[in-house]
Design goal:
The complex is a heterodimer of chains A (225) and B (304). Chain A has 225 residues and is α/β, with parallel strands linked by helices. Chain A is built from eight helices and nine strands. Chain B has a four-stranded antiparallel β-sheet. Classes of the chains: A alpha/beta (225), B alpha+beta (304).
Chain lengths: 225, 304
């Protein structure tokens, strides 16, 4: 679904990484680790076409984003569930409408998905906060809401940047189990995280591959765990 | 991205998408600016339209009145006036396009001159020319040049005045004023487009975070733009309706004098002309739709 071949990315003359080759297949589950500033977020942004590779080739659903129209990019993004580190929301809308946003922009009627929305909010522990606005939520609640928004439209791939950074261990396990369930149904998952416990917990439940950005390239980190 | 306004996209625009509309937060000050600008521009547009239509109407009326009459002025020594008047009437009786030829009486000539010389003018003692009033009619109209040549040959003291020298500058002036009125309407529409574009750009800039979130979840540019376009189009329509109605009331209550053909007392609309201002809100909405859509799609292209 997403293929990277010899990809490099430089920012302000500084090369974050180079010669990265990776394929995210349906049903795969990847963790991405590495020190802060190594380029994990940048890597995810390349995958969902917010950034373009300095060199090499990125294929998203079989096409190079550089050959896509803006509409094509939007359509393909609708197939990707994204959890941003800073959990971007529309602050003037209640949480439930924010979570339903991927349905709305893809032309689906959120009212027809009311039950799914309720059960999803319940799963991430935000039922009582459904009608509150994002600025009224804690960091952890925002992260859970971001994950709920990423999965509501049953995407083919979920790219999550530190999705459990501000939640307690119990909630982390709960969020992980949601990702695992989706993965079992064929959704490809890539999670950028520092949380080694989360990775170990996932390995007990599903087949995962852990990658690490080190020395400006992507290496398998399975032996480190 | 598809920039064309397709039937489907226009239908979608008209029907609206409450969720998409809600995605853009209330824009407060720029919203009020748009409503005010549309109202003010529509108010001015109604007056420009009234000026243009009034000019056309009055000029046509003057032109028709002058075109339907002509005058023959006979200047001759005292003993020859009557003979030449008879000769002129004979010519007129056989001239196609003349429905009536009538010699003005002394009283009527005195009335014509009284505004300049007062009512006690001793007209009998003055060497005034004799006037014959002609009313035009019949098929083909009056051939003024042919009549002028016949009079020159048969009635040497007669001069035909078909009012062309008065009519031409009137028609020219009316055309110019009507043209200025239309130019004013175009300028008003352009100014409104500029104002709404600036307001829409300000709103788009203020909502860059909203646009970012919408993009994140896969919203197409057209979808994002539609929320802004609908909002500004509806506001422009509302403002234009208010401005147009207020201006129409103002025009309706302008002092009118049906007996005068002047601009000041004739400015306004007559009968079906009152339907024309109803187009102004529609045009304002179209201008807002086009201006906001163009601005939004251009700005969204600039935001990666």
């Amino acid at each position: 679904m997403i293929d990277l071949q010899g990809v490099a990315y430089s920012y302000s003359g500084r090369e974050l990484f180079s010669d990265v080759t990776l394929s995210l297949e349906p049903g795969s589950f990847h963790f991405l680790t590495g020190p802060s500033g190594a380029g994990k977020t940048t890597f995810l942004k390349l995958c969902y076409m917010e950034l373009q590779a300095t060199s090499g080739r990125v294929n998203v659903f079989g096409r190079d984003p550089r050959d896509m129209t803006r509409d094509d990019i939007a359509k393909n993004r609708a197939r990707i569930g994204i959890v941003h580190q800073d959990c971007q929301f529309l602050d003037h809308l209640p949480l439930v409408e924010n979570v339903a946003l991927p349905l709305t922009v893809s032309g689906k009627d959120p009212d027809s998905a009311t039950e799914d929305l309720k059960s999803l909010l319940s799963w991430v522990g935000l039922s009582e906060q459904a009608n509150r606005r994002p600025p009224e939520l804690s960091g952890g609640e925002r992260q859970r809401a971001a994950l709920a928004r990423a999965v509501i439209n049953a995407p083919d791939i979920i790219l999550a940047d530190e999705p459990t950074g501000n939640v307690d261990w119990e909630m982390s396990q709960r969020l992980l189990s949601l990702l695992v369930e989706l993965n079992k149904m064929g959704t490809a998952i890539m999670v950028a995280t520092h949380d080694m416990n989360l990775i170990r917990m996932a390995k007990k439940q599903v087949s995962t591959r852990t990658l690490r950005i080190a020395d400006r390239t992507l290496v398998s980190a399975g032996a480190d765990l | 991205m598809t920039d064309r306004v397709t039937i489907a996209s226009f239908k979608g625009f008209l029907l609206g998408d409450a969720q998409a509309d809600r995605a853009v937060p209330p824009t407060g000050f720029t919203a009020s600016l748009t409503v005010f600008a549309a109202a003010a521009m529509s108010f001015l547009a109604v007056f420009a339209l009234a000026l243009s239509l009034t000019t056309e109407r009055i000029a046509e009326r003057w032109s028709e009145e002058l075109a339907q009459t002509a005058t023959i002025r006979i200047s001759a020594p005292d003993g020859q006036i009557e003979a030449q008047t008879e000769a002129a009437l004979r010519v007129l009786r056989t001239t196609p396009g003349v429905s009536l030829a009538r010699v003005l009486t002394s009283e009527e000539q005195r009335e014509l001159l009284s505004p300049w010389f007062g009512p006690n003018l001793p007209i009998d003692s003055l060497p005034l020319p004799q006037l014959i009033e002609i009313e035009e009619g019949g098929n083909g109209g009056l051939d003024a040049e042919g009549l002028r040549q016949r009079l020159a040959a048969e009635v040497p003291g007669a001069v035909l005045d078909d009012h062309a020298q008065w009519r031409a500058p009137l028609v020219q002036a009316a055309d110019r004023i009507r043209g200025l009125g239309l130019i004013s309407l175009v300028l008003i529409a352009a100014t409104m487009a500029v104002m709404i574009t600036l307001a829409a750009n300000a709103a788009l800039s203020a909502n860059s975070k909203v646009i970012g979130v919408m993009r994140l979840v896969g919203a197409r540019d057209v979808y994002i733009a539609r929320a802004f376009v609908r909002r500004y189009t509806i506001r422009a329509l509302m403002g234009a309706v208010v401005g147009t109605v207020v201006a129409m009331l103002a025009v309706a209550f302008l002092p009118q004098d049906a007996t005068q053909d002047g601009f000041l007392t004739g400015l306004g609309f007559e009968r079906t002309e009152w339907l024309w201002p109803a187009l102004i809100p529609v045009l304002a909405a179209f201008v807002a739709f086009w201006a906001t859509r163009t601005a939004a799609l251009r700005t969204l292209k600039e935001i990666t």
